[in-house]
Design brief:
heterodimer, A: 132 residues, alpha+beta, two-stranded antiparallel ribbon, 2 strands, 48% helix, 12% strand, B: 406 residues, alpha/beta, Aspartate Aminotransferase, domain 1, Aspartate Aminotransferase, domain 2, 2 domains, seven-stranded mixed β-sheet, four-stranded antiparallel β-sheet, 15 helices, 17 strands, globular
Chain lengths: 132, 406
């Protein structure tokens, strides 16, 4: 699924309950992260739940796998990875994630006070785009 | 009579809608809402009365200095200390504890000594002692509590001995709600020659506090939890202890005679209030404490106890819920876990229902881990919490459960 399809699907959702149920559903369909990666090394700091993010370079693009022990957070990770995964570093740097989250009606989850790790996660993705 | 509906009208923010739902504010343990009298008093000062304190020989400065010092007298009354000279204004309880660690601790603790704290301490009453321990080399001992969060006399007594120089304990746990038997604990500590510092952040909000009766040597609490403003805290210390302590910070308003090469310091409490203090916040705090006293602290306690009983009668309806901390007589702090639901996920749903709870380690990570968790959700009550809040909380929990069924 690409981000346009995701935006279309979100438009069909009427209220926050449907939206959250869909987010949880997205998390359930996330590419699984091998248990061996669930270590301090791959942990994203600054989250109230545990969040892991593992990058791998595939040709000129970066593939990300992520996971969380909280299911809504996991769903939000699925959205973030739909936005960022399998893109080139320069594409990653040019993405306006705030605009996409605003369009999805999820801006609150990018608020710095939320501490659900999404900001930390997008920072980490941009960091990998710089170093990989 | 304690009329909670009338009291709620004193707190405008409680009437606000959150995500289109009534504001169900269950995080007063982290910071409480402010009554209109406190807000109004602070606006009045900025509007009509503001000047610096202890400085000018002019009307406005004299007037506000008298208000600032009067607030100290209100604190004295609130905790029933012998003298208002035993009341030091700080930024918050954390600073109060750090002040004791930095000044009393550095002067009087040696590597031969022991400092005893409980398993139930907030980071603010743990980390300063760890850091000072690393500097001085005394032994930091931690006495265990029971698995239900209740106080364990044997554990406490076993850890007290002739080397114990300081016991630093919470009066009421911010995670478990457990209320420690302070008076008896302090007596036992004094029997071995130790001083006692009480972290009173939750305790003073929950019940009438009488430092003369408790006989504690230090008491720390924060203004923002006692329905007052942020940026103001209190350190109570017995006169003879404060007088023996060196200043904490240096500058204006705490000195006696200053030459280019030497300075003599003022008496307590001024000695510990370097620089322009949080004037308006201090006066706001006085207003808040007067507000609590006008409601009657015994009635506040009775109201909170009744809320806890009501909550207990209703939580049985929520399958899979475990209350963490079930000591008899606990205060209005309710940490919990629901099997199969991450507290962070729970908080997302509760927030959408207008219910504010805190999620995480509650600045007491070792305690949460000791109770068997990494993260917990916590609902905590204030003097304005009512049954409808608890009903909405229970309903929101039931709703959350529908999201996470496997």
């Amino acid at each position: 699924m690409d981000i346009t399809e995701l935006e279309d699907n979100f438009e069909l959702l009427e209220d926050w309950e449907d939206k959250y149920r869909y987010i949880i559903d997205l998390g359930g369909r996330l590419e699984p992260l091998d248990e061996k990666f669930k270590t301090e090394e791959w942990k994203v700091r600054g989250c109230q739940s545990q969040v892991w993010l593992v990058p791998s370079k595939q040709n000129d693009k970066i593939h990300f796998i992520g996971d969380s022990d909280a299911v809504i957070v996991k769903g939000l990770i699925a959205i973030v990875l739909t936005i960022y995964s399998d893109k080139s570093p320069s594409e990653i740097k040019s993405i306006a994630v705030e605009d996409i989250f605003a369009k999805l009606g999820l801006s609150e989850h990018l608020s710095p006070s939320r501490r659900n790790g999404l900001i930390a996660m997008t920072e980490k993705i941009k960091y990998y785009a710089n170093v990989l | 009579m304690y009329d909670v509906e009338k009291i709620r009208k004193d707190f405008p923010v409680l009437g606000r809608q959150i995500n289109g739902k009534p504001n169900t504010f269950l995080d007063s343990g982290a910071s409480s809402q402010k009554p209109m009298c406190v807000i109004k008093r602070m606006v009045d000062i900025y509007t009509n009365e503001y000047a610096n304190v202890h400085r000018g020989s002019y009307f406005l400065s004299e007037e506000i200095t008298s208000e600032y010092e009067n607030s100290r007298k209100i604190v004295q009354k609130f905790i029933n200390s012998k003298s208002d000279k035993e009341i030091v204004f700080t930024r918050n309880a954390t600073e109060s504890i750090n002040l004791v660690a930095s000044t009393w601790g550095r002067k009087f603790l040696t590597k031969m000594d022991e400092v005893l704290i409980s398993e139930a301490e907030h980071h603010a009453n743990l980390v300063p002692w760890q850091v000072l321990r690393d500097e001085i080399g005394f032994e930091l001992k931690i006495f265990k509590i029971n698995d239900d969060g209740s106080f364990n006399w044997d554990e406490y007594r076993r850890n007290l001995n002739g080397r114990t120089k300081l016991v630093a304990i919470t009066g009421m746990s911010n995670v478990l709600g457990t209320i420690f038997p302070l008076k008896e604990m302090i007596k036992s500590a004094h029997d071995v020659g130790a001083k006692v510092l009480v972290d009173g952040c939750q305790y003073v909000v929950h019940q009438k506090t009488d430092v003369k009766d408790l006989d504690c040597d230090f008491l720390a609490f924060s203004g923002h939890k006692t329905y007052g403003p942020t940026g103001i805290g209190v350190l109570y210390g017995k006169s003879e202890l404060l007088e023996a302590m060196q200043p904490y910070q240096f500058g204006g308003d705490m000195v006696n005679v200053v030459t280019y090469q030497s300075t003599t310091f003022d008496e307590p409490p001024a000695r510990f209030e370097a620089g322009t203090p949080a004037i308006v916040q201090a006066i706001g705090l006085g207003e808040a404490l007067n507000y609590m006293m006008s409601l009657g602290m015994d009635d506040v306690t009775a109201h909170e106890n009744e809320l806890v009983a009501y909550l207990h009668s209703r939580i049985k309806e929520v399958d899979g819920l475990t209350e963490v901390g079930t000591a008899a007589g606990k205060g209005g702090v309710f940490s919990f876990d629901i099997a199969g639901i991450h507290p962070q996920d729970l908080a997302f749903i509760l927030d959408k229902e207008g219910v504010s709870v805190r999620v995480g380690h509650h600045c007491a990570a070792p305690l949460v881990r000791r109770m068997g968790y990494e993260t917990l959700a916590r609902a905590s009550f204030g003097l304005y919490t009512n049954h409808a809040d608890i009903d909405r909380f229970i309903n929101a929990l039931q709703k959350a459960k529908t999201f996470f069924k496997d």
